[in-house]
Amino acid sequence: MKIHKEGTTIILTSLFFMAVVAGSFFYFNGIKWWTITLSAIPLLFAIFFISFFRDPKRVPTGNSHLVTAPADGKIVIIKEVQEDEYFHDRRLQVSVFMSFFNVHINWAPISGVISFFRYHPGNYLAAWHPKSSTKNERTTIVLKNEDGTEVLCRQIAGLFARRVVCYAEYQKPFKAGEQIGFIKFGSRADLFLPLDTKINVKIGDKVIGSETIVAQLAKKQ
Questions:
Q1: Which neighbouring-strand residues pair with 166?
Q2: Which residues contact 168 (CB under 8 A, 6 or more apart)?
Q3: Is 188:127 a contact under the CB 8 Å cutoff?
Q4: Which of 25, 43, 208, 211 could cross-link 35 (Cys pair, CB 3.0–4.6 Å)?
Q5: Which of 127, 63, 96 is CA-nearest to residue 191?
Q6: What is the Cα–Cα distance from 199 to 160, expressed in whole angstroms?
Q7: Are residues 44 and 82 in the same domain?
Q8: Number of structural domains, the chain?
Q9: Which residues participate in catalysis according to the annotation?
Q10: pLDDT per residue over 154-185, tens digit each?
Protein backbone atom coordinates (compact mmCIF):
# COMPACT_ATOMS: atom_id res chain seq x y z
CA MET A 1 0.00 0.00 0.00
CA LYS A 2 1.36 3.40 -0.98
CA ILE A 3 1.49 6.13 1.67
CA HIS A 4 0.67 9.71 0.70
CA LYS A 5 3.46 12.26 1.04
CA GLU A 6 1.32 14.39 3.37
CA GLY A 7 1.41 11.67 6.01
CA THR A 8 5.11 10.78 6.05
CA THR A 9 6.11 13.01 8.98
CA ILE A 10 3.07 12.11 11.10
CA ILE A 11 3.52 8.38 10.54
CA LEU A 12 7.25 8.43 11.33
CA THR A 13 6.58 10.49 14.47
CA SER A 14 3.87 8.10 15.65
CA LEU A 15 6.11 5.08 15.06
CA PHE A 16 8.95 6.72 17.00
CA PHE A 17 6.57 7.57 19.85
CA MET A 18 5.28 3.99 19.83
CA ALA A 19 8.80 2.60 20.09
CA VAL A 20 9.72 4.95 22.96
CA VAL A 21 6.55 4.24 24.95
CA ALA A 22 6.71 0.48 24.47
CA GLY A 23 10.41 0.38 25.27
CA SER A 24 9.88 2.40 28.46
CA PHE A 25 7.07 0.14 29.68
CA PHE A 26 9.07 -3.02 29.15
CA TYR A 27 12.32 -1.57 30.52
CA PHE A 28 10.86 -0.37 33.82
CA ASN A 29 8.13 -2.96 34.37
CA GLY A 30 9.10 -6.05 32.43
CA ILE A 31 6.88 -7.98 30.08
CA LYS A 32 3.46 -8.18 31.73
CA TRP A 33 -0.06 -8.28 30.40
CA TRP A 34 -0.75 -4.63 31.28
CA THR A 35 2.51 -3.36 29.76
CA ILE A 36 1.68 -5.20 26.54
CA THR A 37 -1.83 -3.71 26.58
CA LEU A 38 -0.62 -0.15 27.14
CA SER A 39 2.07 -0.56 24.49
CA ALA A 40 -0.62 -1.51 21.99
CA ILE A 41 -2.32 1.90 22.28
CA PRO A 42 0.35 3.90 20.36
CA LEU A 43 0.54 0.99 17.90
CA LEU A 44 -3.18 1.44 17.18
CA PHE A 45 -2.58 5.15 16.54
CA ALA A 46 0.24 4.30 14.14
CA ILE A 47 -1.99 1.85 12.26
CA PHE A 48 -4.73 4.50 12.09
CA PHE A 49 -2.35 7.09 10.63
CA ILE A 50 -1.05 4.61 8.06
CA SER A 51 -4.63 3.82 7.02
CA PHE A 52 -5.66 7.48 7.00
CA PHE A 53 -2.80 8.58 4.75
CA ARG A 54 -3.10 5.72 2.28
CA ASP A 55 -2.75 6.68 -1.39
CA PRO A 56 -4.73 4.15 -3.42
CA LYS A 57 -4.30 3.70 -7.15
CA ARG A 58 -7.23 5.16 -9.04
CA VAL A 59 -8.31 4.99 -12.69
CA PRO A 60 -9.73 8.44 -13.55
CA THR A 61 -12.97 8.35 -15.53
CA GLY A 62 -13.72 12.05 -15.98
CA ASN A 63 -12.83 14.57 -18.65
CA SER A 64 -13.59 18.22 -19.37
CA HIS A 65 -17.36 17.54 -19.31
CA LEU A 66 -17.77 14.48 -17.08
CA VAL A 67 -17.48 15.64 -13.46
CA THR A 68 -15.98 13.09 -11.08
CA ALA A 69 -16.13 13.09 -7.29
CA PRO A 70 -13.43 15.33 -5.81
CA ALA A 71 -13.14 13.07 -2.76
CA ASP A 72 -14.11 9.72 -1.29
CA GLY A 73 -17.17 9.82 0.93
CA LYS A 74 -20.93 10.28 0.98
CA ILE A 75 -23.10 12.75 -0.91
CA VAL A 76 -24.71 14.94 1.75
CA ILE A 77 -25.93 17.98 -0.21
CA ILE A 78 -27.50 18.41 -3.65
CA LYS A 79 -29.30 21.72 -4.03
CA GLU A 80 -29.47 25.02 -5.87
CA VAL A 81 -27.70 27.80 -3.97
CA GLN A 82 -26.37 31.31 -4.37
CA GLU A 83 -22.57 31.21 -4.80
CA ASP A 84 -21.15 34.61 -3.88
CA GLU A 85 -17.41 34.16 -3.68
CA TYR A 86 -16.70 33.79 -7.40
CA PHE A 87 -19.76 33.31 -9.61
CA HIS A 88 -22.20 35.64 -7.81
CA ASP A 89 -25.15 33.72 -9.21
CA ARG A 90 -27.19 30.55 -8.71
CA ARG A 91 -25.37 27.21 -8.92
CA LEU A 92 -25.97 23.53 -8.19
CA GLN A 93 -24.07 22.50 -5.09
CA VAL A 94 -22.96 18.89 -4.66
CA SER A 95 -21.12 18.11 -1.42
CA VAL A 96 -19.10 15.05 -0.39
CA PHE A 97 -18.57 14.37 3.32
CA MET A 98 -15.40 12.51 4.28
CA SER A 99 -15.32 10.44 7.46
CA PHE A 100 -12.18 9.45 9.38
CA PHE A 101 -12.14 6.18 7.43
CA ASN A 102 -12.19 7.66 3.93
CA VAL A 103 -9.16 8.47 1.82
CA HIS A 104 -8.60 12.20 2.26
CA ILE A 105 -6.95 13.04 -1.03
CA ASN A 106 -8.79 15.53 -3.23
CA TRP A 107 -8.91 15.11 -7.00
CA ALA A 108 -9.63 17.56 -9.83
CA PRO A 109 -13.30 17.05 -10.80
CA ILE A 110 -12.77 18.00 -14.47
CA SER A 111 -9.91 18.61 -16.87
CA GLY A 112 -9.15 22.29 -17.23
CA VAL A 113 -7.03 25.25 -16.22
CA ILE A 114 -7.11 26.93 -12.82
CA SER A 115 -8.88 30.26 -13.38
CA PHE A 116 -9.26 31.17 -9.69
CA PHE A 117 -7.60 30.08 -6.46
CA ARG A 118 -7.95 31.45 -2.94
CA TYR A 119 -7.17 30.18 0.56
CA HIS A 120 -9.31 31.34 3.50
CA PRO A 121 -8.25 30.90 7.12
CA GLY A 122 -11.25 30.28 9.33
CA ASN A 123 -13.02 28.33 12.04
CA TYR A 124 -13.43 24.60 12.56
CA LEU A 125 -17.16 24.02 12.73
CA ALA A 126 -18.44 20.50 12.15
CA ALA A 127 -18.46 19.76 8.41
CA TRP A 128 -22.23 19.23 8.37
CA HIS A 129 -22.86 22.69 9.88
CA PRO A 130 -24.65 24.94 7.33
CA LYS A 131 -22.09 27.75 7.81
CA SER A 132 -18.99 25.55 7.50
CA SER A 133 -18.63 26.29 3.77
CA THR A 134 -18.26 30.01 4.46
CA LYS A 135 -16.87 30.15 8.01
CA ASN A 136 -14.34 27.30 8.16
CA GLU A 137 -10.79 27.15 6.90
CA ARG A 138 -11.16 26.42 3.20
CA THR A 139 -9.64 26.67 -0.24
CA THR A 140 -11.63 27.65 -3.32
CA ILE A 141 -10.47 26.36 -6.71
CA VAL A 142 -12.11 27.07 -10.07
CA LEU A 143 -11.33 24.94 -13.13
CA LYS A 144 -12.22 26.15 -16.63
CA ASN A 145 -12.59 23.64 -19.47
CA GLU A 146 -12.06 24.27 -23.20
CA ASP A 147 -15.67 25.45 -23.59
CA GLY A 148 -15.12 28.14 -21.01
CA THR A 149 -17.39 26.34 -18.54
CA GLU A 150 -16.14 26.68 -14.97
CA VAL A 151 -16.51 24.34 -12.03
CA LEU A 152 -15.79 25.50 -8.51
CA CYS A 153 -14.36 23.00 -6.01
CA ARG A 154 -14.06 23.98 -2.37
CA GLN A 155 -11.98 22.09 0.22
CA ILE A 156 -13.44 22.64 3.68
CA ALA A 157 -11.79 21.84 7.00
CA GLY A 158 -14.02 20.44 9.74
CA LEU A 159 -14.18 19.96 13.48
CA PHE A 160 -11.04 17.82 13.60
CA ALA A 161 -9.48 18.71 10.24
CA ARG A 162 -6.88 21.35 11.00
CA ARG A 163 -5.08 21.74 7.73
CA VAL A 164 -6.16 22.08 4.14
CA VAL A 165 -3.42 21.36 1.60
CA CYS A 166 -3.90 22.53 -1.99
CA TYR A 167 -1.67 22.03 -5.04
CA ALA A 168 -3.51 24.48 -7.27
CA GLU A 169 -1.78 27.45 -8.87
CA TYR A 170 -3.32 30.12 -11.07
CA GLN A 171 -3.29 29.07 -14.76
CA LYS A 172 -1.98 25.61 -13.90
CA PRO A 173 -3.62 22.86 -16.00
CA PHE A 174 -5.06 19.76 -14.34
CA LYS A 175 -6.51 16.59 -15.77
CA ALA A 176 -9.68 15.11 -14.30
CA GLY A 177 -8.67 12.74 -11.52
CA GLU A 178 -5.30 14.37 -10.92
CA GLN A 179 -4.54 15.04 -7.25
CA ILE A 180 -5.35 18.62 -6.40
CA GLY A 181 -4.99 18.59 -2.61
CA PHE A 182 -5.43 16.87 0.74
CA ILE A 183 -7.50 17.60 3.87
CA LYS A 184 -5.87 16.25 7.00
CA PHE A 185 -8.35 14.47 9.27
CA GLY A 186 -11.54 14.76 7.38
CA SER A 187 -14.22 17.19 6.34
CA ARG A 188 -16.00 18.08 3.11
CA ALA A 189 -15.51 18.88 -0.55
CA ASP A 190 -18.10 21.03 -2.33
CA LEU A 191 -18.75 21.36 -6.05
CA PHE A 192 -20.60 24.31 -7.58
CA LEU A 193 -21.89 23.53 -11.06
CA PRO A 194 -23.91 25.36 -13.76
CA LEU A 195 -27.68 25.01 -13.39
CA ASP A 196 -27.97 23.06 -16.66
CA THR A 197 -25.65 20.34 -15.35
CA LYS A 198 -27.04 16.80 -15.25
CA ILE A 199 -26.58 15.31 -11.76
CA ASN A 200 -25.89 11.55 -11.69
CA VAL A 201 -25.96 10.95 -7.91
CA LYS A 202 -28.42 11.34 -5.06
CA ILE A 203 -28.06 12.18 -1.38
CA GLY A 204 -26.67 9.26 0.57
CA ASP A 205 -24.70 7.78 -2.34
CA LYS A 206 -21.14 6.73 -1.56
CA VAL A 207 -18.65 7.99 -4.13
CA ILE A 208 -15.06 7.20 -5.04
CA GLY A 209 -12.83 10.15 -5.75
CA SER A 210 -11.64 10.51 -9.39
CA GLU A 211 -13.77 7.51 -10.44
CA THR A 212 -17.44 8.12 -9.64
CA ILE A 213 -19.08 10.39 -12.25
CA VAL A 214 -21.27 12.70 -10.20
CA ALA A 215 -22.44 15.01 -13.00
CA GLN A 216 -22.26 15.84 -16.69
CA LEU A 217 -21.72 19.39 -17.92
CA ALA A 218 -23.73 20.65 -20.85
CA LYS A 219 -21.59 21.14 -23.95
CA LYS A 220 -21.67 24.59 -25.52
CA GLN A 221 -22.60 24.72 -29.20
A1: 181
A2: 114, 117, 139, 141, 174, 180, 181
A3: yes
A4: 25
A5: 96
A6: 30
A7: no
A8: 2
A9: 187
A10: 999 865 545 788 999 999 999 999 999 988 76
